[in-house]
Amino acid sequence: MLYKIKTSESADKDLKEIADYLAEYAGKEPTIKYIYRLKKRVFNLLRKFPNSCAKHGKYRYFVIDRYIVIYAVYDVLKKVRIIMFAHQNSNYKNDMVTRA
Question: pTM here?
């Protein structure tokens, strides 16, 4: 059974900030395509294999295209909640404290 994916408001905001940053350098159309492909890859992985990624405390995470995706798995409900998208060089650990 495939898991349902939800993104938190803060994760949606993270994606918008990533898109805004990339659009400055790559333009609007390439950025839209990139964000679409990134989300598709993330969602496909998490729908099928949510427990396959590294675990730290109550969260799991993985890196994709220099971005860290942090999420929680609710096996009983067959749901995944994405908490954060962050660049791997960002101070994401401090940001997680305020979001957890």
Answer: 0.90
